UniProtKB/TrEMBL annotation:
PANTHER family xref list: ACYL-COA SYNTHETASE, MEDIUM-CHAIN ACYL-COA LIGASE ACSF2, MITOCHONDRIAL
PROSITE patterns with a match to the protein in the record: HEXAPEP_TRANSFERASES
GO biological process: fatty acid metabolic process
Similarity-based family: Belongs to the ATP-dependent AMP-binding enzyme family.
Name of the protein in question: AMP-binding protein
Top-level taxonomic group: Bacteria
Keywords of this entry: Acyltransferase, Ligase, Repeat, Transferase
Keyword Oxidoreductase tagged: no
GO molecular function: acyltransferase activity; medium-chain fatty acid-CoA ligase activity
Record bears the keyword ATP-binding: no
SUPFAM superfamilies reported in the protein's UniProt record: Acetyl-CoA synthetase-like, Trimeric LpxA-like enzymes
Length: 715
């Protein structure tokens, strides 16, 4: 279906947390113009994507807004919003006047809002939640206050004492700041009459604490998406204690159900007209069932949020939600009066359990590790997962968040992976002792005076240590679990059992120096470009195709032997290459020897520092090819023909991936892989034989039908 952005009358509005920004959007609504929030005047991507030529600049002043505004219905386009981008690049969402109006009406009715409302909008108004609050308040003939400095407890207290505000809207992360600073407030909190909470999960304990602190407020939490705002609403101020953990019920013509795979599905007049991602446009509308990425259940008409399907940690067969675990751990630490600073939970590779539990903190690991491991293990245990040995704690400088405080787990995983890869690259593990191996196994330092039974290890740790004993001694001694670790380590190391890490290899040969044209020599430059165009689904704006063109051009210029003629081409290549890296999120230097019919699917996060990439290779997003150790900067991998590489794969070192191999998503590979293999896990292990059609037949078919696209392999 054709992207409707081609025909809309759009106006770009530079986003700022200001009254001017809100007034601009409301004025455009009244004039029938479709507003496009911009990150700045140089936001070329959004301008080009939405075919927007007019830019409205806004000032940055906060203050009061009391504009006359009347919400209206209708299926005509009203604005383009962008998703928060917690799981990748933000998508563009086309909303109608009817979408906006339906949310305004249901929120107003649920909260019983009247023209006396004077609201402190604690969420940035360039976010859909904050801007939505302004529409709700102004439609009721009330007034809203936009704080120029953001959410400020001292300002809120002053304005409550002065009688200037009687309503507050904020996201859970800000309400946690409020609850932590309750001692700064007094009787002025009784003046709060309306509160709306949205955008993130909030635990029942936190909700109960909030309604206790604000005894006279109508407190409403909503669950929804940019594509379907305020799907459910929960009246926290009158919700029974036993159902406070839900995210509310539907109202009006909104409908919710749970799909066969456990995901929340939504239908109703608030569902957007459609969503655009890259060049792909997906039409929606009030008759369509929108499948979300959120897991949930419905009990007695109430919706319960069970976490994002993309984030779920499958630890030994038990599925754990990072959102819910974070909330439970936070509540537990608060009850014990323990402060560990900012932390987040995310899925980490674990070769034995499938997924491990990564805890990322901004505090020094040494100070908080034991506390966090205990708390996380307890919460995982409550859900049936004996996960202590699967928990690892990592320190980062900051947690990447959206404008409303949501953890960007995909970005956080990349940050953590980059840091750990750097640490691993400089560490020699070939002389690891069994005690060092055991410490990594349980995820924390050990005392050799402890008994193995005191480690609180799960069955997988027990199994691995048992195997080590059997290999070292030929048999497993009875009652070894009651041995002191000192004796266990002495027995295993004394028997010479050191087979935990692969030995270091020889240094790799020098890399190509880029002094010649390394494009395939059996095809002309423009025929090669046409072939890349066909391979990448005949999309001229495909990021994969654009990056391939830059790579081919970078090599072609090296065929111009006179340096004086080649120099301007080199300048052009360098500009194009850096632009492509920024716009496409792909790094593929011309010195990488690249075969034919290579497909770069699902652009973004690609660092393709290989020695050579063969013919008919598929590479997906967030993949990394490169060195394993800074001791050998030439040690880069060779990717054979017909290799299919899943998203998030890491292939490093002086290794070769054999032809017709499938590398599963999120696999980490640093050893040679023979042809026709299927590889999964971290570290990557061969789990089977790839039995798809033989290479010769496939090669012949690719010669006969050069226009055929390819979608084989694992996502």
């Amino acid at each position: 279906m054709k992207n409707p952005f081609d025909t809309l009358e759009t106006v770009g509005v530079i986003a700022s947390n200001s009254t001017d920004y809100v007034r601009r959007l409301l004025s455009n609504l009244a004039q029938g113009l479709v507003s496009v929030p911009l990150t700045g005047s140089g936001d070329e991507e959004r301008l080009a994507f939405t075919h927007t030529n007019i830019i409205q600049r806004t000032d940055t002043e906060g203050g009061w807004i009391a504009e006359k505004f009347t919400s209206r219905s209708g299926d005509d386009a009203a604005q383009i919003s962008f998703t928060s981008g917690t799981q990748g690049k933000p998508k563009a969402v086309l909303l109608s006047h009817g979408n906006l109006h339906d949310a305004v009406c249901r929120v107003t009715e649920t909260m019983e809002i009247d023209n006396e409302i004077r609201e402190y909008v604690g969420v940035p108004v360039y976010h859909s939640f904050g801007y939505g609050r302004c529409r709700v308040v102004l439609n009721a003939s009330g007034a809203c206050y936009v704080p120029s400095g953001g959410f400020d407890l001292a300002e809120i207290r002053h304005m409550l004492i002065a009688g200037e505000i009687n309503a507050i809207s904020a996201v859970p992360s800000l309400w946690r700041v409020f609850l932590a600073g309750l001692d700064r407030f007094g009787g002025e909190l009784k003046r709060v009459r309306w509160v709306e909470i949205g955008s993130q999960y909030m635990s029942a304990t936190e909700k109960a604490a909030l309604r206790s602190a604000l005894p006279n407020a109508r407190i409403v939490q909503h669950y929804g998406l940019t594509e379907a705002s305020r799907t459910t609403l929960q009246r926290i101020h009158e919700e029974p204690a036993e159902t406070l953990g839900s995210v509310g019920q539907v109202s009006g013509a909104v409908r919710v159900r749970i799909g066969d795979d456990g995901r929340i599905e939504i239908s109703g007049p608030h569902v957007a007209l459609g969503v655009a991602e890259g060049e792909y446009w997906r039409a929606l509308g009030h008759e369509v069932w929108l499948q979300t990425s959120d897991l949930g259940r419905i009990d007695d008409g109430r919706l319960y949020y069970l976490g994002r399907a993309d984030d779920v940690i499958n630890c030994g067969g038990i599925k754990l939600s990072p959102d819910l675990m974070e909330a439970a751990v936070r509540t537990e630490l608060l009850a014990r009066n323990l402060d560990v600073g900012e932390f987040a939970i995310l899925r980490r590779p674990d070769p034995m359990r499938g997924d491990g539990i990564g805890v990322v903190v901004t505090s020094p690991v040494k100070l908080v590790q034991d506390t966090l491991v205990d708390a996380v293990a307890m919460q995982a245990g409550a859900q049936g997962a004996n996960a202590r040995g699967a928990i690892s704690v990592h320190e980062v400088q900051s947690l990447p968040r959206t404008a409303t405080g949501k953890i960007q787990r995909v970005e956080l995983a990349h940050v953590l992976e980059a840091r750990l890869t750097l640490e691993e690259s400089g560490r020699d593990e070939t002389n690891d002792t069994f005690s060092q191996f055991l410490e990594r196994l349980v995820g924390h330092p050990i005392s050799l005076d402890m008994l193995f039974a005191d480690l609180d290890g799960d069955s997988l740790i027990h199994l691995q240590v048992g195997i080590a004993l059997e290999r070292a001694l030929g048999d497993i001694p009875a009652g070894w679990e009651s041995w002191p670790l000192r004796r266990l380590v002495s027995v295993i190391e004394g028997a010479g059992y050191y087979h935990f890490r692969m030995a270091a290899g020889e240094n790799a040969p020098p890399l190509p120096d880029g002094s010649r044209n390394m494009n395939p020599d059996n095809i002309s430059f423009w025929n090669l470009v046409r072939e890349d165009y066909r391979t990448n689904e005949k999309k001229i704006m495909s990021q994969g195709f654009l990056m391939l063109f830059v790579h081919r051009f970078g090599n072609w210029r090296m065929g111009v032997r006179k340096k004086i003629f080649r120099a301007p081409l080199t300048i052009i290549y360098r500009i194009l290459n850096k632009t492509a890296q920024i716009v496409c999120g792909i790094k593929l230097d011309y010195t990488v020897q690249l075969g034919r019919r290579v497909k770069l699917e699902h652009f973004g996060g690609m660092i393709l520092g290989a020695r050579k990439i063969g013919n008919d290779v598929i590479i997906r997003q967030n993949t990394t090819f490169g060195i394993r150790s800074i001791d050998d900067l030439n040690a880069k991998p060779i990717i054979g023909d017909f290799v299919d590489i899943g998203a998030g794969a890491v292939i490093v070192g002086n290794i070769e991936i054999g032809e017709n191999t499938i590398i599963g998503a999120n696999s980490v590979v640093f050893v040679d892989i023979p042809p026709n293999s299927i590889v999964m896990g971290n570290p990557g292990r061969i789990i089977g034989v790839n039995r798809r059609k033989n290479l010769a037949a496939y090669s012949e078919s690719s010669k006969v039908d050069k226009n055929a696209g390819s979608s084989r392999g694992l996502e």
